[in-house]
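Write out the 3D structure for:
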Amino acid sequence: LVDLLSKSSDTNRYVRDIIFPTRGYSCTVDDTLALDDVELVIGSVCYKRVHPDHMSVYDFTYWTLEDTHPGNMVAAMEGEYNPIMKWMDLDNNVFLTYPSFPSGDVPNHSIGRWNTHSTKFPMLGRFGDTVLFVDLPNEIR
């Protein structure tokens, strides 16, 4: 891992994507579980294994529509803010943190729910990447 991270050509200052195991090798279930909480310090930089979509940037426009996110209609009937749009509307915040644990009025959402629904959101890149206009999905351009 140290070699892969050190020699990576990834220029993102926040996220470094590497492929492990390298071609020709494989991991067992025990190997994969052992990597769950891996943190490495190389020089003065700390690396931590995270979910593959961590720091990815998505277009959530679809999820803001009234009949798409399960909580949208409930919120509308109760006179509450749209649960997806409220972060921008109330806090002027463009970050939507996936609620893997309850906080305030936000219920728990398992990672399985993200895995099921994430295909509905076009990925725009990773936070910190430079993305060319031509590389954006057609619906965003």
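The chain has a mean pLDDT of 82.
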